[in-house]
Amino acid sequence: MAAIAIETRNLHKTYRGGGREVHAVRGISLSVREGEAFGLLGPNGAGKSTTFGMLTTRVQPTSGSMRVAGADPVADPVSVKRRIGAVTQHNTLDRQLTALENLEFRGRFAGLSVRTARQRGQELLERFGLGDRGDAMVHRLSGGQAQRVMIARALLTRPAVLFLDEPTSGLDPQTRVNLWEMLREMHAEGQTILLTTHYLEEAEALCERITVVDHGRTLASGSLEELTSLKGGDSVVSVVHEPGTSLMNVLEPVRRIPGVSRTEADGATLRVFTDRLHGVVPAVLRASLDAGLFVLDVSVRRPSLETVFLALTGREYRE
Amino acid sequence: MTTQILRAASEGHAVPPATAARRALRLVRPFLALLARDVRVLRRDLGGFVLRSVTQPLLFVFVFAYVMPKTQGGGGATPAPGGVSFATILVPGMVASAVMLQGIMSVSTPLVMELSYTREIEDRVLAPVPLWTVGVSKIVAGAVQACVAGLVVLPCVLYVHAPGQAPHVSLGRWPAALGVLVLAALLMAALGLLFGTVVEPRKLSTLFTVMMVPITMLGCVYYPWAALDKVGWMQWVVLANPLVYVSEALRAAFVPGVPHLPAWAYLGVLTVGTALVCALSVRTLQRRLTD
Ligand SMILES: Nc1ncnc2c1ncn2[C@@H]1O[C@H](COP(=O)(O)OP(=O)(O)OP(=O)(O)O)[C@@H](O)[C@H]1O
Ligand SMILES: [Mg+2]
Fold first, then answer.
1. Is the dihedral of CA A182, A188, A189, A191 positive or negative?
2. A7 interaction partners in chain B (CB closer than 8 Å)
3. What residues does the ion ligand 2 have nearby, CB within 5 Å?
4. How far is the CA of B126 from the centre of ligand 1 (A)?
5. Which of B3, B36, B44 is facing A64, going by the closest CB pair?
6. CA A194, CA A40: separation in Å to the nearest integer?
7. Is the whole-model pTM more than 0.80?
């Protein structure tokens, strides 16, 4: 049994300002073990960055309790900050400094000597393939390079927990895959990682356990296998009809097809949840044709976080 | 529904003094590093810094202590009360306004950007130090720049003047002048921190035009406070202006012969006022840094 690195209980955050209240987080409970790669997955505005902010001491929770790396971010933020590294969603590199200086000063802010900080900084830059970019001012770095410098900066103090808020958003696919490789390596070396992402495939690629959040609430939580077998164990067949088509007459016959566990009408799109694709797709199509409907498109989604999300919310997952 | 925030174990037991001391000691290095960061940035733009500090005062003394006396012929510039030359009045005033400009600008301008567009400040929010040290380090770094600006401007205004118009300034009371300079620099840097924290970026330039110019014009920079007795109400209105106390305090140090505000007035404002503005600005920044 590994020790617990992060634990939250019933976290809430309500932003107040301008006469408005935004309930960004409404009861998120997490538990991340040491050495684990944990994903917080959710669409835009789900409350991921707010949760990230609370765990990393920048955002004060409205209620609920937390423990991060053995300390309370509210009562003892300095201890938490000393033990974590955080990569924020936006580029927060110090633009007045070079890449290496960014690392140097992060180390010095944490009490390292100039020499140690620079030495570790150079090592990290080399490890991330940026050994020759140390003297570059931040605005001369590409998006992917800047992101790697941010990660290097977060690692400089050898944190017990590494937090990453949407580490690959805005990066091209190749750069993203490279970054995944880096994170996987770190994780293999025992680094505890909590990352937020709105990319399903990113959570699938990197995380052992995942919490799916939406509108500030936890929808489901568990390993990828647990999640997919829990709810989205079914594949989803989506049949798109001509706009304006009524699906009234087709729902009943489809429901009677062997292997179909659930059907859903979403406008002119018919969604069929099934645990066996074999034979179901042709049968669904035949039902549509028999009802005299025009089919525009058919797609099949294998069990994945996408089908989990679909099953949990009844909404398509939009990245 | 609401769950009590669990306080860390630290609340349960009092922190022994040894630990408190060690904690404070542990802050020294990070704090120096925060300062070192600002110094590193300043070093990159040393020329710009000197230019920003010196241009305005130099032009001013050039026009008013050199050109104007010459145009009026025979060095007949209007003597201030007590028959001292305008240049004499200007020396402390120019130093004071340089300290004010650099103190406020050097802190507020970058801070406004770091807080808004670039969000770079998050870098320092995540540094393992209490948030107040971030604010205090900004004040100290800004005050250092303000002091340097004042010291750079001083020789300029001492040596630029028309023949026979030399300022009669005594540098003998330099420890007093230096003390005033440091206090004034801290006050202005703290004001800069306050402005930088509360002002929206697009209103920054408006702030400078509608605040800096009046503060300078009504800051006893170009005339001693005592001379305002001819415009009685104004003598009282300008007391709301922090620059007045800086100008007058420096004037008292450099030109004790010219009538000036009583020492208790400017020393009171420069100590108590500075402490209050520092505390207020650091707290305001701290609030701004956490959601
Ligand atoms: N400082 C703030 N003040 C007021 N409302 C805020 C603030 N920060 C976030 N919100 C609101 O809280 C909600 C959750 O925002 P949050 O940034 O946590 O979402 P997210 O899951 O990170 O989204 P994204 O994928 O777009 O980054 C949103 O409705 C957002 O508008
Ligand atoms: Mg976010």
1. positive
2. none
3. A 48-49, 89
4. 19
5. B3
6. 7
7. yes
Which residues on adjacent β-strands are paired with residue A25? A13
User: Scanning the structure block, which residue is given the tokens 């305002």?
Assistant: B228
Adjacency order of strands within the sheet including A20-33: A20-33, A4-17, A63-68
Task: Indicate the helix (H) or strand (E) that contains B266.
Answer: helix B263-268
Closest protein CA for atom 12 of ligand 1: A24
- The DSSP code sequence of B127-165 is SSS-HHHHHHHHHHHHHHHHHHHHHHHHHHHHH---TT-
pLDDT in tens, chain A (319 residues): 568 899 999 999 999 887 889 999 999 999 999 999 999 998 888 899 999 999 999 999 999 999 999 999 999 999 999 999 999 988 899 998 999 999 999 999 998 999 999 999 999 999 888 999 999 999 999 888 999 999 999 999 999 999 999 988 878 888 888 889 889 998 999 999 999 998 878 888 889 999 999 899 998 888 877 877 765 567 888 899 988 888 888 888 888 888 888 888 888 899 888 887 778 888 999 988 888 888 899 988 877 777 777 777 766 665 5
Q: Are A51 and A223 spatial neighbours (Cβ–Cβ below 8 Å)?
A: no
CA A49 / ligand 2 centre spacing (Å):
4
CB-based contact A110 B34, cutoff 8 Å: no
Q: Give the chain A residue nearest B132 (alpha carbons).
A: A78
- What residues does ligand 1 touch, defined as CB less than 6 Å away? A 15, 17, 22, 24, 42, 44-50, 89, 198; B 291
Block residue for tokens 């062997």: A258
A10:B290 CB<8 A = no
- CA-wise closest residue to A54 among A234, A241, A223, A213: A213
Of A33, A30, A28, which Cα lies nearest the Cα of A3?
A33
* Ligand 1 atom at minimal distance to the Cα of residue A13: 12
d(CA B246, CA B147): 12
Assess contact for A87 and A63: CB atoms under 8 A.
no
Query: Cα torsion at A225, A228, A233, A236 (round to 10°)?
Result: -140
Tokens of B157: 């205004």
Distance A47 CA to ligand 1 centre (A): 6
Distance of CA B230 to the CA centre of its chain: 29
Chain B residues whose C-beta is within 8 A of a chain A C-beta are 1-8, 10-11, 26, 29-30, 33-34, 36-37, 40-41, 44, 110, 118-131, 289-291
The residues, any chain, with a CB within 8 Å of residue A135's CB and separated by 6 or more, are A98, A99, A100
Closest approach atom of ligand 1 to CA A47: 18
In angstroms, the CA B103 to CA B248 distance is 18
φ and ψ at residue A27, rounded to 5 degrees: 95, 65
- Check CB contact under 8 Å for B289 and A93: no
| Chain A CB contacts of B8 below 8 Å | 71-72, 74-76, 79
Helix, strand or coil, per DSSP, at residue A134? coil
Sign of CA dihedral B262, B265, B269, B270: positive
Helix B86-115, helix B174-198: angle, nearest 10: 30
**Which phi and psi angles does A55 have, rounded to 5°?**
-65, -30
Please provide the DSSP assignment of A169-190 as one string.
Answer: TT--HHHHHHHHHHHHHHHHTT
